[in-house]
Records
---
Amino acid sequence: MKVLGIETSCDETGVAIYDSEHGLLADTLYSQVKMHAEYGGVVPELASRDHIRKLLPLVSETLKEANLSSQDIDAVAYTAGPGLIGALMVGASTGRAMAMAWGVPAIGVHHMEGHLLAPMLEESPPVFPFVALLVSGGHTQLVKVTAIGQYELLGESLDDAAGEAFDKAAKMMGLDYPGGPLVAKLAEQGDRTRFRFPRPMTDRPGLDFSFSGLKTFTLNTVNDHKVDGVLADQTRADIAAAFEDAVVETLTIKCKRALQQTGLKQLIIAGGVSANQRLRDRLESMVAKEHAALFYARPKFCTDNGAMIAYAGCQRLLAGQSSDLVIEAKPRWAM
Ligand code: KG4
Ligand code: ZN
């Protein structure tokens, strides 16, 4: 079964074709990041308009890259939520309309299920059951995954998501949007011993997270160290390192707890923040001590992309599900 997947929930237009027999055949992505950077964050109306401009050309490009025509496509999967409603509507209505024109089924996919299954696109994928840490700009969740569609929420952020905290901390340090990768890059030059930021909610039991206090702590540290309103380059790097370490260590402590609590030996990390090298390194050492294994997707499939939607849609369709003629677009949707 060849599934064309469409992702338009935020600021990336992604299209891909996944074949249940031969794997990923093609994937294309257009990032709007540069356009939004000027405004310091995603402008929803601009995002929707750009998805409209880019989506159909990307569909043609993806078919061409896979050496296929529309007649070869067996189904269409599109991100149905959660995300920006206007942006979601572009992918949902286009995906649904293409499926209707081509006479094939369509299915609305949960964006976070897409992220969660992205490591399945890699060469040695995990096997069910496993623990998943979902860390994106909008979500921070620990999930026990037993099978496709069988997800038990073990813990989540009570306030900001980890990626959101990275983006806000970046803004306080005068860095562009999206800040996560920039904070990570800056942290490489930082002295990791100069500041020690709190590891929120690690001193009490449970698997929930909270990152808003860390944001306030970062703001206070930035303000306390400005000289004549300016933050020295080295101090900025030291703060970035302390911030990154605090997030990474907090996530690592909770992942270890989740493995111990469930007795499972496989941990997957997914979502934009799972591209963070420091996080990968710390988790690798943690799982080694726990005699467990760590799985993640290649960096371009950690952030938003069409491949994860094509894959998740394909699994759902193989299980007999589809969305009929409804155009599904849900800005808020629990997985
Ligand atoms: O999954 P994603 O592309 O979009 C959402 O579904 O939210 O995640 C984007 C988030 C942003 O907050 C971005 O700053 C963060 O992932 N991010 C990173 C890194 N790469 C992306 N955060 C820390 N380190 C990175 N290397
Ligand atoms: Zn995402």
---
Amino acid sequence: NWTMENFIDTEINRIRTIVGPTAEVIGAVSGGVDSTVAAKLMKEAIGNRFHAIMVDNGVLRMNEAENVKKNLGEGLGINLTVIDASEEFLTKLKGVTDPEKKRKIIGNTFIHVFEREAERIKPKDGDEIEFLLQGTLYPDVIESISFKGPSQTIKTHHNVGGLLDNMKLKLIEPLRELFKDEVRHLGELLGIPHDLVWRHPFPGPGIAIRVLGEVTKEQVAIARKADYIYIEEIVNAGLYDKISQAFACLLPVKSVGVMGDQRTYEQVIALRAIETTDFMTADWFPFEHGFLKKVASRIVNEVDGVARVTYDITSKPPATVEWE
Ligand code: XMP
């Protein structure tokens, strides 16, 4: 009979058979649930012959690269390399305001950086990298079958297909038969910490699609800090696990405010929090007023460049979860 414990043993054996005794596997990790669980499974199956790569694209959440180093590298013992490519990404994003262009640039730059790193790893230990790990879930498999072409995709997600076209790698997808809740269960059985297993999803293009308009280092820093405060308050209020996804967006709009006896003229932060089961439809989360008041006051007081905070009370549809 099918149990998750059996799945782990079967899958580890399957991975060992596919990869063989010497080949190496490479895979990207993001700090999210899927890539972490997939990476941990690989580590259990083939140890350091699995090479995890984390690309810092300059639009990650606060302290994300360090946290991944700590949690996946030190905590889970995964053979991990973190690459700081933030300048490269931010340079390519310069002057770009269109959301889909941002996604394409980030997707393509990611592929470029990842390939470069794969080349660099190769000669180090003689054996060839033959496989690419992907944390594809069953719903991703279904989606990529049913949505073909830009006319039917509302937003272009998962860009990693390009990696396979360019590098001569074989794909390995240990999670492709699992749903999200099963991946979380698997993660817990593999000893991945609760906070990591129950983390909200975070989009590949990151804060770049949460800084509306042009993405600059300064704008990212403002959005990142506001988001950090917001999530910290959500966790402190015991609400994190009740919410499906929450984040702050920085709007490219200036608004007048007053601080002490000074008139200010600074940007606006929009807070979003949603409840959903499938992310196809979503409701905004009904925070207590006192909670919103506290977050708004902290953000305006602690984040330079913000004069006003708003809360997004739009459902999906008609709005999407993200603002871009
Ligand atoms: P939307 O905004 O389409 O978001 O209602 C639904 C879910 O998808 C995430 N999302 C993305 N994830 N790359 C990703 O990896 C993307 O370009 C992207 N756009 C949206 C969003 O965060 C939400 O969970």
---
Amino acid sequence: VKDLGRGDYEFFTEDMNKAVEERLILARELKLAVAENKLELYYQPKITQESNRLCGVEALLRWNHPELGFISPEKFIPIAEDNDLIIELGLWVIKSAFAQLISWQEKGLPSIKIAINISTKQLQTQGFVGSVERALHEFQVPPQLIEFEITESAAMDDPLKSIENLKALRNIGIDIAIDDFGTGYSSLAYLKSLPIQVLKIDKSFVMAMDKDENSAAIAKAIISLGHDLGYKIVAEGVETQQHIDALSSYHCDLLQGYFFSRPLPSIEMEKYMLSADIC
Ligand code: C2E
Ligand code: CA
Ligand code: CA
Ligand code: CA
């Protein structure tokens, strides 16, 4: 810690204490919320670029704390990862998404794919694949309707363990997508050694495409190279018609973003499904 003079120094440590304290409070509250089943999944549509059809949804965690309000997963997922809470929370997400899929089927709604975010720690936990298999069996979910989104860094971190589990998941019939693609350091050559089917271009590139030629060039290159290697490409963070026009000219397969819809609670998602053309 730099001594910036007495006042600044105290201010700084006070700030740090505050941050630590906030994390502790959130960790405790999160544990409670998980135990009491207080978290919820929202669903965001993925749309085919060519024919504007609903082709799947991504499940996204939402935590509405009675006093603190909505807390972003960007904030609480890392806290859950620091504890082992992510294992329990992650399995809750998987089972809830499976239950939702079956409930939609039972209501006669169209069968669309659900993508589930899996954290690095989950992927590398002993017994993870077994717990997924048991959940598939318990809810009688066809694995073809399930996709796992793994960040690029998760695949890179301890790659042997990751590859082993990814291969096992793939053998079960679950599709694997690399999330936030372009932000990590993996070469496409390395990716080829992983059993993946989908690349998701990180929203930072998509959202900068209008103003920044480099971002547009990167998005275009990812799509073109990705296609040559046999991957489907999803763009996230699609907010404007310009984004769509550019991504269409690059032949991106699927689009996801606020332009089409924000993530929706399941009731709202059902309405969306009823009014959408399905792929
Ligand atoms: P992600 O997996 O990259 O998810 C995409 C994020 O972008 C979501 O934020 C989504 O709401 C947001 N988004 C979608 N379209 C747009 C758009 O057009 N513009 C902008 N500005 N944002 C858009 P969200 O829901 O806050 O989630 C943040 C991150 O938290 C996720 O990033 C993911 O890494 C993590 N997360 C969320 N749910 C889960 C979960 O169930 N398990 C795990 N392990 N992580 C999760
Ligand atoms: Ca994701
Ligand atoms: Ca992402
Ligand atoms: Ca992300």
